Amino acid sequence: MEENHLNHLKGYAESYKRSFNMRVLADDTEIKEAYKTAQQRGQVPFNRTKVLILGDHGAGKTSTCRRFRDKDFRPEEPSTIGIETNTVEAKVSDVNSKWCEVTNTPLEDYESSAAWWTVSRVLQQDKNKLPKARNKSDNNVNVSTIRQKFQDISYMLFHIIPMPVIFCFGGLTFGFGPSAWLYIFYISRICDFHSAYRFGCAYTICMVLVDTTQVAQQPVVAFNMWIYVTVVMVVCLYGLGSFLVGVLMSAGGRTGRQFGAYGYFPEHYLVKKTIGFIAGIYIGRMCGWKFDNFNNLTIFEKDLSQYLLKIVSFVAPFLGFIIYEWFSYMKVKSTSSIPIVHIRKSMEADLRNECYIDARLSLWDFAGQEMYYNTHHLFMPKQGVYLVVFNAVEAISNPDRYIKRLQFWLQSIAMHVDIENVVVFLVGTRRGSVRDQNAFSTFDKCVTAHLYKRFSKLLAFNPSGRLCFFIENSLKVDKELNILRERIYNEVTKLKYFCEKFSINYLLFKEALDGFRHRQCVIASVKDIENELMLTSKIFVKYEVRQLLNFFDKSGDIIYNELDELLQNYVVCDPQVLIDILKLLVNVPELHKRNRTVSDLWHRLLETGIVDSRLLEHICRNKGIWRVYPYVIRYLVGTQLMFPLTITNQVDQVGTFCLPCKLPNIDLQKCESDYIDHTSDIFYFDFGEMLLEFKSHQNISV
Asked: Helical H runs in 50-174?
């Protein structure tokens, strides 16, 4: 939008903002320049986090996760195996609304973020251009301010020049349509065509109103005193009319856009044009204008020229309107330098004082069976939101046991997290099954007394003052669940990492990440990632690559550990596939589901807890990722989920490994019956054949 045109309307209302009409945006050079800058160095808040749902088996974690997404409660909810992940969006405009599944493509995420940065920058520049109040004691006149005022007045006067010209030549004799289009073409020389279209129509309506107030209807042929009075009166009315047009255009444009942004009336294009057309006819009829009566004219009489003139004056405006709309449509459709739709929505969000970029939450639903506990540390990030879910009915009936269980989960979380970037919520389910409502307060007081002092830096309070949130997932609408959802969002926005800025270019990697997943590259080396980034995000510095990988690790899209000497060279591009592999290792398939070629290896794992590399190769082959199975082994070893026993090939990781969670239980009765006193025996351990990084773990196991 031209600066002179914007200043002209701001002269009537300082709060007037840019038009978000897509035809105007397609020609807005400032928007285009700002979008190019956004692509190069734009930054937006991180606005993403993991939400990890922990708790004992059968506590209602999966049901809670479903209710967050506004899905129906299932009484017979199957137990979660391993970890289930879902990515959702939390609406910034309504934190109580359901968390919707993410449907945007990586390119749409990139364009929407760049559009929001573009709009924020342009609107801030417009705000900085507003004249600032001068100190009254300062008598020095700013020369640039006077020059600017003079330019604004000249621009305003230039707008109303056609009014007296058309009046003197009797332009309205040819009807409203031709006069409007003449005005439109005139103003289009000083501003964009869409704004000229709006101003031309408004000024012509003003001319119609002035025309109906004239007392003298005869043309100007004699220069007597009455004619002078008439001309002066008409000029004054035109000046007053142009002023009213400016006021209505600025105020109406601002109010109309606000109504559209808040959805007070439908923005369908045909609806708006139909309303405007009917309003125009009504104004014309109220002013005394009449429709042409073509029955009084015949082609075969002398009034052929008048007949054709009336036909042209009637058809031309409609034809011009159709041509204008067609070119506007094609202009918007052919504009590829900026994402017009996202920029328009960003401007609408700004009018509502909202952020166009919604919070992105990655929900991780952890299995509650004990066999999965030693795999949790792999997926527990240092930053994020943790929900410890427990059965409120059982907790109230046995508070001592459940306080110990809550303490266990809080200790597990505290071992892995950065205190400043984590918040924990204690969530009790099955509230409706508790008859004594006072029991909630009693249990909450016990929890506060035993746990709050030790974990005060982690725990978040209920707005009611309780430490626990008690919800009922079976209800269609649960007020306490909405409070929890709102509280989660409010708390996460206070975390340091959530508000950190990141480069918009990072989002381009998401498309490359999908490419890795499509190629079934579950685990990739950092070197491969760097090569891909050179082609997509144009990131060449290794430091930036590490920042990008940490960014996506925080958001839950990948798993990357920069601090580990071994793991810092690998990236888990698809965490869910790694989770699925762990599911198979922890939950050994039933006999009839095992492949005969590796049935003995499955049996060995079940009996001894030893994993053969051939078994992992078989699992990866069934997943279609057999080429990266050595990387899978390295990652499982690096995360201490497996420990190497014998390795015959370091490159392909051929050998046997110990899976601690599958080690057989010790039969204490048998040990007591076979007990032999070895208190005086001396044991010698030779660690020469063991890897250095695993000696401490072997000592602990001994």
From this structure: 61-68, 106-129, 143-160, 162-168
| The amino acid at 79 | S
Q: How confident is the model at residue 389 (pLDDT cuts 50, 70, 90)?
A: very high
DSSP string, 8-53: HHHTT-TT------HHHHHT-HHHHHHHHHHHHH-EEE--EEEEEE
Give the domains, in start order, of the chain with CATH numbers. Answer: 47-100+361-502 (3.40.50.300), 588-701 (no CATH)
The answer to whether residues 3 and 243 touch, using CB atoms and an 8 Å cutoff, is no
Beta strands, E only, 253-335: none
Burial 598-623 (b: 16+ CB within 10 A, else e): beebbebbeeebbbbbebbbbbbeeb
What pLDDT score does 399 carry?
Answer: 93
Question: In the prediction, which pLDDT does 551 show?
Answer: 83
Instruction: Please report how many Cα atoms fall inside a 13 Å half-sphere around the Cα of residue 370, on the Cβ side.
Output: 3
Say whether 666 sits in a helix, a strand or coil: coil
Alpha carbons 695 and 701: distance in angstroms, whole number: 10
Those residues whose C-beta lies under 8 Å from the C-beta of residue 672, and which sit 6 or more positions away, are none
Q: How far apart are CA 218 and CA 216, in angstroms?
A: 6
Integer Cα distance of 404 and 454 in angstroms: 13
Task: Report the share of the chain in percent with pLDDT over 70.
Answer: 67
Check residues 65 and 250 and name the one with the higher pLDDT.
Answer: 65
